Amino acid sequence: MHDPRKGHMDVVYHILKYLKSASGKGLIFRQNEHMNIEGYCDSDWASCQDVRRSTTGYCMFVGGNLVSWKSKKQPVVSKSMAEAEYRVMALGVAGMLWLKRLLEELNHDKTKHMEIDRFFIKEKLESELLELSNVAIGDQVVDCLTKGLSSMDLVRICAGCKTSIGTGRFLSCMDSVWHPDCFCCDACDKPISDFEFSMHGDHPYHKNCYRELYCPKCEVCKDFIPTNKNGFIEYRAHTFWMQKYCPSHEDDDTPRCCSCERLEPKDVKYITLDDERKLCLECLNSAIIDNSECQTLYIDIQGFYEGLNMEVEQQVPLLLVERQALNEAIKGEKMGHHHLPKTRGLCLSEEQIVRTILRRPVIGPGNKIIDMVTGNHRLVRRCEVTAILILFGLPRLLTGSILAHEMMHAWLRLKGFRSLNPEVEEGICQVLAHMWLESEITSGSSSTTITHTESTSASASASASALTSSSSTSSKKGPKSDFEKKLGEFFKNKIETDTFAAYGEGFRVGNKAVTKYGLRTTLEHIKFSGSFPY
Fold first, then answer.
1. What does the pLDDT look like over 330-355, one tens digit per residue?
2. CA atoms of 301 and 413, how far apart (whole Å)
3. Which of 180, 248, 273, 337 is buried most deeply by CB count within 10 Å?
4. Which DSSP category does 249 fall into?
5. What angle do CA 228, 229, 232 make, to 5 degrees?
């Protein structure tokens, strides 16, 4: 006690309280009919928190009266519980033999029948001098000498089954005591025997069960998201779809859908278009693949413009093209404002020869587009607009919003809107695309839900059938699936949050003007001043 602390003083107070409350207690010696020597011994293995030595304790009775007792820390560390028990048994047997010899020296008649045996434990058992008995829970009186007892130890109630625990084995955790079989995982309902366990609220879990329930899994590789160098779980999530994934997938060439931007899960195979773009299976359900499908959508959008009293009087050709053909057409166009990596549509004003898709492709081995037939189409300039080009393989709503955008370019040129600032022209075109998306999302009610295809082993013929049938029906105006509505909201969100100056900021300023003054007044102001009204 060279360095006493508050904890030591608390122990002293605890002892003093006991002595004060037990001042009237003592040992009672009764005259019984026998003078048998009985011994109780026990050990608390590795109970010392400082040096992990075991605590030894025994009580000796002669004639049913307590005459000797001891509680002491063992001199060396026991490597197992059995070793600690053997040590205390040896000490107990030695104490009983000492009492036996003492009684013999006193020449007590009732102990003369006892055989003197110099060997410990094994020899005494073989000579039947000693009998080792299993002491039932609650009958082991030496517990008070080997284990620290609180005021509740004699009335321990299991927090699980609500029955008495007595002085047997129990677990002390979560500010309660439990039978070992009653302390169970809240997930699998099996006993928790591990030294460490996890908690969620007031509920205990096996560590593996807790991980399965509450640790996030990567929606791409399907593994648990690992911790970073600081020990924290770090993941990425798509800002709209909230698809969670490991940060490493941003740099490991994991395919991303060219439409909805979601990463390809390892148990799903995306469709590979001929220009190496990837298309997820949900977006494939409504993808526009050839010119005939696109013409149906073109008629719908022309009707949308007519409803706004903005009919495009000239019949402008519409062509569905590949990425390479679109890029080549952009390079040959003198008008317009384009950023090549993002451009998916083009309103042409020049005469060009454009390679367009003549026959819809099929999906071959490895979910790859094959058998696409293309041909050259000569565009002749008969007015300010020679054609509208749209990138193939995009869902109906995305294709439609691009087409609505490019048709607004055509309308502006045919109506004499000249040399507009890029932010104004692209901004008002984005407003029309946003308006068309809004009308499409609100016009149909959900009648079906597209189920996410999990199988990666779908046959090429089944995929080709889906490509042929689903996209042709989806291109017609009507009820939309829940996913298609969600996809429409995503495309609206992309327009609203675009960071590119001409498209993003132009839309936000233009949409504010149209909301405040109306579309017709806004267009008149643009034609007169070349800017949005404020």
1. 887 765 555 545 689 999 888 888 88
2. 18
3. 273
4. G
5. 45
